[in-house]
Amino acid sequence: MATEFSHEANQSPATAERRAEILANPGFGDYFSDHMVTIDWEGDYKTGGTWYDARVHPYGPLTLDPASAVFHYGQEIFEGIKGYRHADGSVWTFRPEKNAARFANSARRLSLPELPAETFIESLRELVKADEAWVPTGDGEAFYFRPFMIATEAYLGVRPAKHVQYHVIGSPAGNYFGTPEPVDIWLSTTYARAGEGGTGAAKCGGNYAASMIAQTEGEKHGCKQVIFKDPHRGDAIEELGGMNVFFIFGKENKIVTPELTGTILEGVTRSSLIQLAKDRGMTVEERAITLTEWREGVANGDITEIFACGTAAVVAPIGKLKAEDFEIPAPTEHFGEISKSLREELVGIQTGVVEDRHGWMTRLI
Ligand code: COI
């Protein structure tokens, strides 16, 4: 059954001038639209519960009891998904059923209630209906939805919360790294972001919190992102602090990405790029890739391009790999041709200028 959302309009939205100023240079994650979505849940994790009071209301601070479980035990999950403006003014989103399914998987892992996929998709539609004017039109820009779920029950015992809230906020978004040039990456040898049987495949705040110390270490060495090693396999690499990683073997027309081992996040961009590469006749390998293969592949010219990918960053070229005691040079100083054209094809599908041959797009408004 479709969820009914009530609406409360923001009485002091951003002025048209202020919004235009923000949309002229949205950056990433700095500005938020005038409204947000909230849905409450009450119940028992073991026996079930009810989602109720779905509402679109003015964006603003949440009032939560300081004993809310999210503040103590980190019962929290989130998603990242974008809305794209097409030439006729309509707004579309990309494979939302995949984000909804991943959100449900993350919920299960964190003992949170599952939100039905239709309600997840409807919540994006309701927010963008209220804040349509915030969807940017610039090249590579989109409206970034951040759905999240938090345990709001005030209770200090350790067990799944009986009161939970789902929210969606929206933010106009441009380039995640602020530059189209390759970004250097720091290899964390001290810290892991996930472990076997842990939460690596769930999109929960704790994984990102755990990655920050390594990212700060990387920043001291001039790197904007950190890459982690696969905790199971010696010097095999796993994923970045918040993105998946791909290697292009240009001469062999081959693309390689670490396989999903349970510690890696199953990226929607990752799986879409795998499909687009297969469509082009490229060989796609999902397997362990080691630092030795990285070092040798760049040195002998087999690895011609490396990129990071995710909803926020789309496809972002990687330059050097830096570590405490070694460095692997960048395979190319520029945005490599294959990475660039995969990005253009993906963004083309998302923005309606390339045929959506896999039926990936869903119209929101
Ligand atoms: C996304 O790509 O949407 C993410 O959630 C990653 C985060 C680094 C912004």
Describe this structure in words.
With 365 residues, the chain is α+β, with helices and mostly antiparallel strands. It folds into two domains: 6-173, 2-Layer Sandwich (D-amino Acid Aminotransferase, Chain A, domain 1), CATH 3.30.470; 183-351, Alpha-Beta Barrel (D-amino Acid Aminotransferase, Chain A, domain 2), CATH 3.20.10. The protein is 26% helix and 29% strand. It has eight helices and 18 strands. Strands 1, 2, 3, 4, 5, 6, 7, 8 and 18 form a nine-stranded mixed sheet that branches. Helix 3 packs across helix 4 and helix 6 crosses helix 8. The longest helix is centred in the middle third of the chain and has 16 residues, at 205-220. The model has no long low-confidence stretch (mean pLDDT 96). It binds 2-OXO-4-methylpentanoic acid. 2-OXO-4-methylpentanoic acid is lined by residues 80, 242, 310-312.
Could you say which small molecules are bound to this protein?
A: 2-OXO-4-methylpentanoic acid
Mean pLDDT: 96
Coarse structural class: alpha+beta
Strand fraction equals 25-35%
Q: Please bin the fraction of helical residues.
A: 25-40%
* Rg, Cα atoms, Å: 21 Å
Bulk shape: globular
**Main pleated sheet:** 9 strands, mixed
- Overall number of structural domains: 2
CATH class of the largest domain: Alpha Beta
Q: Give me the CATH architecture of the largest domain, please.
A: Alpha-Beta Barrel
Q: Write down how many β-strands occur, each being a DSSP E stretch of 2 or more residues.
A: 18
The SSE order reads EHEEHEEEHHEEEHEEEEHEHEEEHE
Q: How far apart, in Å, are the first and last alpha carbons?
A: 20 Å
Number of helices: 8
At the fold tier of CATH, the topology name of the largest domain is D-amino Acid Aminotransferase, Chain A, domain 2
Show unreliable segments: none
Name the CATH superfamily classification of the largest domain.
Answer: D-amino Acid Aminotransferase, subunit A, domain 2
